[in-house]
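S1.2 Input.
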Amino acid sequence: MPRLLSQATILICIIHLVSNTYAQTYSDHVTDKEITTFFKQLSASMDQKIKRMDEELIDWTYPDLYGERDTLYQMGWLTRGIFQNDTVLHLFDTEDLGFIKKQYDAIAESNWHEKHFMAFELVDTIFYRKILSHSYNNRKIGKWYAHSFSMPLFSVDKKYVIIQQEYYCGYMCSEYCVYLYERVPDDKRWKLLAKWKCIKI
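S1.3 Output.
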């Protein structure tokens, strides 16, 4: 009996390990592990490390991919979509662009789950209000900042990723851009290649 229990325990551990490795909470095309590993490596690559992360994802919209189609709102770089970006078109082939669309179509969540992001503190609107209140007093930023992210959109080989990213530190203190990163050869850092649609306050 002990031997059977031991074998059952081992089997359960293997199933749990495999399910965690290949689980797909956020996308049908990218695993949870690939997403969370990206954020850990991105944080290590950033000057302002990711410590607090908005639990709510920044939405990807149709114009984010394809650009504004109404001529009244076509304002050059500010309204150009991913598929109109020269750097993206240079680095991403047809298969990669198709994979971007598949990931966009398959986004399954609007919030990050704490169990996947133990390396960071997930924060809500209450904490954002505290950041704003803190900034009104002209104090040093300290811990009073947070990052917000969209779902990362990867190339097929996971060498490139496109993501919406915002840094918020209170009143008149925020920066948003769409970022394009490249994975460096050691697989543990990401290099910024381009950014667009930037709004800084």
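S1.4 Remarks. The longest helix spans residues 2-22.
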